[in-house]
Design a protein that fits this description.
Elements: H1 2-15, H2 21-28, H3 32-35, H4 37-60, H5 62-72, H6 74-81, H7 86-114, H8 117-148, H9 152-172, H10 185-196, H11 199-227, H12 235-241, H13 247-262, H14 264-281, H15 287-314, H16 320-349, H17 351-372
Length: about 375
């Protein structure tokens, strides 16, 4: 499906360097906390720009913004291929992060306005599934590229996939028939103030922050653990281990009926218990059990994310684009903090410190959700 392809090509950009972190740490001679900024620079830019992306898409048009963002993504990809320092690479990655939310917001709004009602859920699910596949494929392609040559090749591949993104948007997004430009900053400001006075929405944003904090903490630092003895895995095998990420494409639709029936609080509680069980498994040395733990922990995070997205919609009456922008600000903000804090924890006491940090964060998400989502319980 075109929208699944667009989602996959977009999210190739977000976490692609994650499987390269051990290589980049060695090449640039930096600590785990410093090399984590390769991911954090992108998610920080995504967090900062997410609230404004909806305003731009509302003013200029969904198709135009999607095409323009994919075309502009070619430039930071090209800059990354030439990066010789960590600062130069982070600058290119930050620029990528400013452009990615434009496509995220524009595609969702395009489907809401242009898709036939009978096909909306199907097309949106295809897009979300595509983003999950893209998150895995980016990590895999980068690992394989480094294994075959050098890490710069990974960003040449991203340049190519963003060019394909332009083509996918041209083919898969016909010109809008129902788009009406909205250029009323005062109205947007009023809606934003109302959202910032909504405790349920703000608590849901806090849950989102903690959810992605856990996911990025785990997958940033597990690459460093797997590259070190006793595993000593290269970038290619590490990239393959990210296949556990694909479970999100299964967990999200499978748990949707239970989420709809029992509510987001129940789903969050189940997610916390699932992630805690997975994190406990990762404390073991056995590689198969470690991978199983990663898979179980990831399933819990994906279930928590589905619960949080549901809670966002139930906590508001209007201004949904801005509400989604605020949630994404918190969500990707969690990733930015995790990129540095988890690396510092790993440098301090290794994987056990990272696992403990993630357990505390998941328990915190459950506690915050309990406070904010009581009225959503079935």
């Amino acid at each position: 499906m075109p929208f699944g392809v667009i989602g996959a090509l977009l999210f190739l950009n977000v976490y692609a360097p994650q499987s390269l972190l051990p290589v980049l740490a060695r090449e640039f001679g930096v600590s785990s906390a410093q090399v984590g900024t390769v991911i954090g620079s992108t998610t920080l830019a995504m967090a900062l720009f997410a609230p404004f992306a909806g305003l731009i898409a509302d003013a200029l048009g969904r198709r135009r913004v999607t095409l323009g963002a994919f075309a502009l993504l070619l430039l930071p990809s090209l800059l990354a291929t030439q990066a010789q320092t960590l600062s130069a690479l982070n600058l290119a990655r930050f620029a990528q992060g400013l452009l990615i939310p434009l496509v995220m917001v524009a595609v969702s709004a395009y489907l809401a306005e242009e898709a036939p009602p009978a096909r909306f859920a199907q097309l949106l699910t295809a897009y979300v599934t595509g983003t999950i596949v893209g998150g895995f494929a980016g990590r895999l392609l980068s690992g394989v590229a480094e294994h075959a040559g050098n890490w710069h090749l990974a960003f040449w591949l991203l340049l190519l996939t963003n060019l394909l993104g332009v083509g996918a948007a041209l083919v898969g997004m016909p010109r809008e028939k129902h788009f009406i430009p909205q250029r009323r900053p005062r109205e947007a400001g009023r809606i934003l103030v109302n959202h910032l006075r909504n405790p349920a929405l703000l608590l849901t944003c806090a849950v989102g922050f903690l959810i992605l904090f856990v996911l990025v903490s785990v997958f940033n630092t597990v690459t460093l653990r797997l590259a070190a003895p006793p595993y000593s895995l290269g970038s290619g095998p590490i990239g393959l281990i990210f296949a556990v990420y694909l479970l999100g494409a299964v967990v999200t639709p499978v748990t949707a009926p239970a989420l709809a029936r029992r509510g987001p609080l129940w789903a969050l509680q189940a997610a916390v218990l699932t992630s805690l069980a997975g994190l406990c498994l990762t404390l073991l040395t056995s590689l198969p059990l470690l991978i199983a733990g990663l898979a179980v922990a990831a399933c819990g995070v994906f279930l928590a994310q589905a619960a949080a997205l549901s809670a966002v919609q139930s906590s508001i009456q209007g201004g949904r684009s801005l509400a989604n922008g605020l949630y994404n600000f918190a969500y990707y903000g969690g990733a930015s903090v995790a990129s540095v804090l988890a690396g510092a924890a790993y440098d301090w006491r290794g994987w056990n410190a990272v696992a403990a940090l993630c357990m505390v964060a998941m328990l915190g998400a459950g506690w915050v959700g309990q406070r904010g989502w009581r009225n959503s319980a079935a």
